Structure formats: structure tokens, C-alpha cells
Amino acid sequence: MKLTIERAALLRSLGHVQSVVERRTTIPILSNMLLEAADGRLNLTATDLDLAVVESVTADVTAPGAITTPAHTLYDIVRKLPEGSQVELEYRGGEQRLTLSAGRSRFVLACLPREDFPVMAEDALPHRFSLPVADLKKLIDKTRFAISTEETRFYLNGIYLHVADGKEPTLVGVATDGHRLARVRLPMPLGAAGMPGVIVPRKTVQEVRKLLDEAEGSVQVSLSDSKIRFDFADAVLTSKLIDGTFPDYVRVIPANNERLLEVDARLFAEAIDRVSTISSEKSRAVKLIIDTDKVTLAVNSPDSGSATEELAAGYSSEAMEIGFNARYVLDIMSQVEGDTVRVSFADAAAPTLVQDGGDETALYVLMPMRV
Amino acid sequence: MSIRLLPETTVNRIAAGEVVERPASAIKELVENSIDAGARHVDVVLSGGGIEYIGVTDDGAGMARTDLELCIERHATSKLPDDDLLHVAFLGFRGEALPSIGAVSRMTIASRAKGASEAWQIGVDAGKRIPAKPAALNQGTKVEIRDLFYATPARLKFLKGERTELNQAVEMMRRLAMANPEVGFTLTHDNRVMLRVPPAPGDLFDQRLLARLSALLGADFAENTIPIDAERRSFRLKGYAGVPTYNRGNAQQQYLFVNGRAVRDKLFVGAVRGAYMDYLARDRHPVLALFLDADPEDVDVNVHPAKAEVRFKDSGVVRGLIVGALRNALAAAGHQASTTVGAAALGAIRRDSQPFRPSEAFAEFHRPLPGGFGETPQTGFVYADTPSARIESAPSSTAAPVTEAPQEARFPLGAARGQLHETYIISQTEDGIVIVDQHAAHERLVYERMKKALTDKGVARQMLLLPEVIELDPVAASNLADRAHELAELGLALEPFGAGAVVVREVPALLGDCDIRGLVRDLADDLAELDEALSLKERLEDVCSTMACHGSVRAGRRLTVTEMNALMREMEATPHSGQCNHGRPTYVELKLKDIERLFGRR
Questions:
Q1: Which residues pair with B290 in a beta bridge?
Q2: Which is deepest, A25, A344, B267, B405, by most CB within 10 Å?
Q3: In this predicted structure, what is the pLDDT of residue B514?
Q4: How far apart are CA A152 and CA A169, in angstroms?
């Protein structure tokens, strides 16, 4: 194998795939990435056995071939090469060494044979549809903060993607950690009808989101009930899905919360952030004291003192007090796009609904705290 | 095969299996008889781990010939005068011990009743009586057992080695000796004295007890204990509990006596662990000896033939009493760290310092510290010429400048004199020096503050959007449901969910996105095993202690004298500041007289 490629192009592709490779692994080949050169293209593949990314980039290939080499080392080297340099990669069969030359630098990297590199089985992925990049970005951004990190409830460690029937069928993304929930609804794309509900793991969500940053147009999504694939222009990401049952979340979304509070989104978020400064605890509890056309935020911390701030708001129901984890409120507020946010309550111990004044498709549910 | 009544010898052998399972239990029965007989001295002589020979001689009330002949009958006792099992005031009462032992060994009992002019002796050989004959003996009783279990070869086979049986016997004697400080005990094995304690002096039980405990547990124990004295309803708890830094790797040295009877009870183990939880790592155990006096009506000792277990009418009160009394005592002991810590430090210095041959280690100790404490480095040993390192002047970069503050030396932790390696604070007290580990000390202070905040404010609870249903066995589920109120105070709200499941609706906000299922399972285990919900508290305190660790002054930060003094004043004012969260000491005190000893001045 022998090829020449421009540093910037190689770095961009390596950047996409290297984060899939785990820093510590017990199987040596898993810290490697697969390089395949043929027909004027270099394909880079990285996998952690649950997730594989293949990125393709044009290169000047003089001799086709394939080899695996340590992913993070290769990435770090290319990153440190001077801008604008031409990188030459050469592998001669038999000696298990990959030579990388650029300008006057020369690196010899240890290799492992490509035959040992794990390949994710190609399953049939019967459901196929295409999603605009902007829509998929929105779906991920507005839900992923609510993904649970607690491994024991593995079925919450991802975004639940499914189709909801109704007057206008929708494609729905949901995430929850049992304390709060975020849901985004998109118009159902052609071809998604009849797809199974699937849970896309957190790491996959992160990698897809990264690839979306530089993508344009739309992304092809194909899935079965155990795998999902995202086809980008130059990259393909294939991932296993979480084998579990996502809880019946629809019933925890309150339908009859009648006490409606409308407040300026930016001012509300800033005020919450300000008053919660006083609490050094991990669980920063903020109390909302809501009365006619105003809301008072209060934080009390036994060691450092207390803080209150009053905000003008639209509210005409019965006065009430309710506590929340300030961090959870801020997580939601950072996804709100509109000028106002609509918060509706049933009582101080029931799920609270948060809706974005500027985005009807997103919805958040937050469970109060008892303080 | 037709049903028939078993002959008496067989019945006695079966009973023997329950009452007497090994030499130690035979010794226990005999010594308890001696104590019940009002003995002042009990001598126990063993041979072959007690399997070959056990001899127990006392100077108690003794028995007349008629009593002697009756005492080897089954269910014959002098200790239940009104046949009232609810008011058991003696150690024994079942009347099973002597016939049971007699059924499986060769036993002779010689006794001379108080005021009697003659002694009599009677024997039993594997259940067969040997008629009474006169004997020579002072007042008291002497019971001799030879070839224990020779009549039940199966049991004999299952005895452990001589050594193990002997260790069990010694441990049994220690318990008996602890419970009865006014009685003197000796235990001799093959002519070697294994245990000898004289009757402890003193008019008050407490005095006698402390003397006896230090004789048995070591002199250290007396210096590192806190007296316990608490009462609740009809229960009274006395005894001594070790300070947390005086700990052990196993729970062997934890003794509970209920009405003078040594008892192993899970309630006790759980209560002790709960009380010390905060101060000790999970694998370290405190040393303590507690005596619970209860109205015989409130405690059932007739649960176990060997009486190793008891049952309380209201175990909640007893648990509360033990935990409360220990917590209060520990809180009152405040910042006390064990004296053994100081002794260990001295030992570490002294071990290598032979008076006339200063070794490397001693020279190391003696060499002026880098940049600090006096003289310029000298070559060779300076041991003979300069008998003390000068600590008065500390003009260096390592030691912070010292202002003279004589009044501060009167505080228990003294006045800061300097900081070594930017980690340890050296302070001078009226009669010694104190070395404080600044990180450990500050960590503990921050931790205590957080814990106080947690108690004052209550645990904030995050309600769950998706309540978690947890399947358990029905007993565990109902145990948890019974304690739901207590758990709710700690931030965990749960309810029963059908039989064999609970549903968790709220969790402590502090724990964040946590493994609720694992937590509840652990709690169920705790309740089953220790009758206390420790896991939840432990987890909350784990979070606190991690945060405390991050929020405290690290080793390697230079402190000013004002900061050092402030730290020590706060340590004095804060309970439990003598050990860090893992039971390690936060400071070491060296008394002046110890230091003088180091230099051979004493």
C-alpha cells in the first residue's frame, strides 16, 4: 500500500473516526484503525465492536492495500504536522510496519494485519428514510441532555426513536433519566412508516452529532430492530441498538396541567443561573414562588446564605410554590430557542411541562424536587 | 418398626449435643455454676485442649450430700426457686448442664457445703452413676471431666484440633472474666497459665470493670475508651467503648453482656456498626465491652440452649439505646485521637535508635530538615555533642514565621510553630508537641460541616418521573415498607407494591442519577442482616466525603500561622475531628516526657 494525501483532508477524516476508538481496551486491535487504499480513495474504519465508522477521502493511491495502525497515535501525529504538508503512507507487506512521511518527518508505526480487524456483520436493514441534517441535529441536541448515565437502567442510556401515528404521523425522539424527559417530534419522513421503536446508544448519538457538524443536505438512515446506519456523503456510521424496552413515556407527559406560567426565556435562565450560585451543593435546589404575574426564584443554602430574584411573568392561576433542581432547569433552558418559555404545573408534586415558545416540536417534562 | 421411648442415657446424650458442643461450652457451664454459687476465685485446669481433662475448682457455696446426689439428675436445679421462667436471675436455670456432661464423659464432682464438716464426691461415667463417697476438699466445689465426648464418638470426631479448642476455651474464659470482674480467674493448660486475673479491686462496678478490661484487653484499652452509661425505659447500658482510632481488623473484640451473660447478637453488631459508621472504614472495627442490664421480663434468655442468643421484647429500644449511647459518647469525646497513635510514632522513631550506635534512621531524624530548624548541615553524627535539635528558630522557607503566642499553648492542640513539607503542622502544647495532618484534618472539618447541613436542612428529594418498581422477596419488601418513614427522612420515598415488590417514588437529590435498584437491594440486605438502613446513609456520606475531599486544603499548600491556629481551634471545637473519614488519625500528640525518653533523659 502506498498513497499520498493532503494533511488537512486526512486530519478531518481522522478526527471523525478516532473518537470511536476507546483509549483503553483489552483487545489490541481495537485501538487500531483500518486503512484501506484503492481506486483513488482512502477508507478509514474505526470500531469498538458496538459501533463502526467508515470514512472515505480522496487520495493519490499509487499502490492499493490495507493495514491497521494505532488510531490515536496516527491522529496525534497528523495533528502535529505542519499545515499544508503532504502526507505519504507506505506499507510493504511482510514487515508489519507502516511508514508515514511528511516533509522531513518520518514515522514508523506498528501494525496489525487487516484480517484481524473486526468487521461488523452486514445485516439487512429493511427500513430506510432520509432526514434533513438540520432536523436530525435538532432531534439530538434537544433530547440528549436527558439521556441517563446510570448503567443499570441501560434501556435509558440512549435516545428512543420511533414513529407515532396520529392525524399527522411523526418521527419522535425521546430521552429520559427518570428525573426529566425531553421529546422532539419531526414530520414523518417517507419510508419510516412501520419502523420498529429503537434505542440509539449515547455514544452513537455523540458520534453522529459530530459527523452532522460538517454534513450538508440530508442523511440516509437505515435500521432494523437491532442495528442502525447513518449514511453521510463521505462517511457511514453503523451501530448496534440497545436491546431493551423503553418505558411507556407517553403516560408521564401531563396532559392537564392547567396552571400556566409564561416567562421570558433568557431572563428566566439567567436568573436561575444567578441565584443557584449561592448553593455549593451538588443538588442545587431552586424554589419557584409563583403568584399573579410574577415568579420569585429562591435558593437557600445553610452554609453560604440565600438568594432571591423576582421576574415579571404571565400567570393568572392560584399562587403556588415548587422546587426544582436548578441544573435540570438550566439544561432545558439552554435548548429553548424562543423568546418565551411556557411552564405548566398541576401541583408541587406532579410532573411539570416545559414548552418552547419558539419551537412547537420540542417538549420537556421535569419532575419537581421536595425541598 | 414400632415407636418406643428412648432410654434416659440416650436422651441425655442428645441433650448433651445441644448444651455442650465443645470443651469451651462445658467450661462455660461449669464456671457459670461456680459464679452462681458465689465463688470469689475460679480455677480452671485443662489438658489436651480440654478434651482430655477439664477441672474447675471454686470457693463458692458448695453442696451437701443430698444436693450432690440430685444435681446430676436431669432438670434438677437450685436456680429457679419459683419455677418462674420470666424472672431468671441466675446464669443457669435449665438444669441440663451436669447430667448432659455426665452423659458423654467421665465426671466427678466433689463438694463441701458452707459450714459443713465433710466433703463428698460423686461420679458419673457416660451416664452411669458412681455412688457417693467421702472426699477431702475445702469449702467449694471441684468438678473434673475426663475424656469429654468419649461416649459419643461421632461428636468427638467433629471436634477441631487441640489448639482451636483451647483458643475457644480461652475466649470463653475472657468473656466470663469480663462479665464478672469481682471474681478472680485462672486458666491453666498443661501447666501453662493462659489467663490469670485477680478479683478486680474497687467498690463500684465501673472501677472494677475498667481494671478487669485493661487486664484482659491490654492497658491501651483503658486509655482509649470512653465510658458509656445510658438508660432507656427499663434498660441500662454501661461499659466502655474504644475511640475510633483505636480500631481492629476484625470484630472479635466487641463484647456484649446481657444481664451478665455474654451474647453474640446481630442486633448488637448492627448497632455498633451503625454508631461507628461515620468514623471508621468498613473493614475496621472498634473495640468495646458493653453491659446491658434489663428487667428479666423484657428479655428472653431461654432461646438457645447455650444461651448465646437472647431475644428482646422490644428490640427497637435496645438498638436505639446502644446506637444513641455510643454516638453521644463519641461526640463528647470530640477530637480525641488514640494515644496509641502517638506511641506508634514514638515506636517508629525509637526502633532504630540504639543509644550508643545511632543508625541511619536516627541520623536522618537528627539531621536538620532541609532549610529549616537551625544548624547548617554537618557531616558525621552529632548525637553525642548536640543532644537536641533546636526547634525554637524557624526562619526558613518551609516553616512559616512564628509569632509568640503563649496563651495559645494552653489549648489542647497548642500553638502552631511551623509547617513541615507544606503538609504537617507542628504545634506546641503545654506538655508536648502535636503534629497535624492538614489535609486530613481540614477534610474532616468540611465533612462535619456538610453533614450538619444535611441534618439541619433535611435531605432534598428528587421526585421520579418514572417510579422504579423493584422486585424483592416478600420479607425484604415488607421490612422496607415498615421502615418507609425512616427512609423518607433520608430522602428515599418508597411504598409497597403488591407482595414482594416496592415502588420508589423519590430519591435523595444528592445521589443524582443513581442505581436505585442496587441501593434498595442493599438496604433490604442491611435490614435483614443488621436491622438498620446503613447503605443509604453510607452513600449520602460517601458523596459528602468526596465533596469534602475536593473542598479542603490539600497537602502541599503553605499556610500562615494564623491559618494553622484557626484550623486547630476549629478542630478542638468540632466533634470527631480526631480521625479522618477513614479512621486514620488527623493528628499525633507526643508528650514531652516521651520526647525526653527518646533522648535518654528519663
A1: B239, B256
A2: B267
A3: 80
A4: 33
Which fold does the domain B205-333 belong to in CATH? Ribosomal Protein S5; domain 2 (3.30.230)
What is the per-residue pLDDT for B563? Answer: 84
Superfamily of domain A253-366: DNA Polymerase III, subunit A, domain 2 (3.10.150.10)
Letter string b/e over residues B430-449, b meaning 16 or more CB atoms within 10 A of that residue's CB: eebbbbbbbbbbbbbbbbbb
- Using a CB-CB cut-off of 8 Å, the residues of chain A touching B547 are 282
- Which CATH superfamily, name and number, covers A2-116? DNA Polymerase III, subunit A, domain 2 (3.10.150.10)
Dmax over CA atoms of chain B, in Å, equals 100
* pLDDT for the residue B378: 38
Instruction: Select from A88, A85, A69 the least CA-distant residue to A28.
Output: A69
- Sign, Cα dihedral of B516, B517, B522, B527: positive
* Secondary structure (3-state) at B133: strand
Contact B462 A371 (CB under 8 A): no
Closest A-chain CA to B512: A283
Q: Do A176 and B465 touch (CB under 8 A)?
A: yes
Across the interface, of A151, A252, A369, the residue whose CB is closest to B465 is: A252
Number of Cβ within 10 Å of residue A85's Cβ equals 16
Report pLDDT digits (tens) over B548-601.
776 677 777 788 888 888 888 888 888 777 777 666 778 888 888 888 877 877
Task: Assign B354 a pLDDT band (cuts: 50, 70, 90).
Answer: very low
Regions of chain A with pLDDT less than 70: 280-283, 302-303
Give the nearest partner residue to B464 out of A179, A300, A302, using CB atoms: A179
Q: Domain ranges for chain B, please list them.
A: 8-197, 205-333
Q: Where are the alpha helices (DSSP H) in chain A?
A: 7-18, 71-80, 133-141, 202-213, 265-275, 326-333
Inter-chain touch B466–A249, beta carbons under 8 Å: yes
Q: Do A283 and B463 touch (CB under 8 A)?
A: no
**pLDDT, tens digit (0-9, with 9 covering 90-100), for B116-148:** 888 888 888 888 888 888 888 888 889 999 888
CATH number, domain A127-251, options 3.10.150.10, 3.30.470.20, 3.30.310.50, 3.40.50.10490: 3.10.150.10
Task: Provide the 3-class DSSP secondary structure of residue B355.
Answer: coil
Residue B150 vs residue B95, higher pLDDT: B150
Q: B464: which chain A residues are within 8 Å (Cβ-Cβ)?
A: 178-179, 367
Task: Identify the weakest region by mean pLDDT among B297-301, B383-387, B451-455.
Answer: B383-387
The single-letter code of the amino acid at B83 is D
